[in-house]
């Protein structure tokens, strides 16, 4: 579980992840992402659709060496960057309540694009986890050579 040091108190007692602070004062008024940590250490990040693009790039999916999609870039002209909350390196577990485990890369990308394009919602919600906290990612192994 993430330490309390990485969480900050927001309006109405809502806890916000420290990544919310990364853009403080960089642009005019903005609608910050809501970030709520669950009991497993996952972060539920809600991003308002304040820009024409979401602005994230992902790698991974069931048909790749990374079974879960990972955020590899956040474009500074997108809603995700303006809101904060999402970070490069996070693994995506859900998009608007739909689990992405087992989906191929192009299906995850399509799900994200279609969720962002929906006109009936003014936000998009991600359930993410830091890569090191996921047991879905391959673990690095070390080879040890002993000399006789």
Automatic annotation (TrEMBL):
The keyword Repeat applies. It is found in: Cell projection. Residues 1-34 are annotated as: Disordered. Residues 44-115 form the PDZ domain. The keyword Ribosomal protein does not apply. Keywords: Cell projection, Repeat. PROSITE patterns: PDZ (PS50106). One of its GO terms (cellular component) is cell projection. This is PDZ domain-containing protein. It comes from Cryptolaemus montrouzieri.
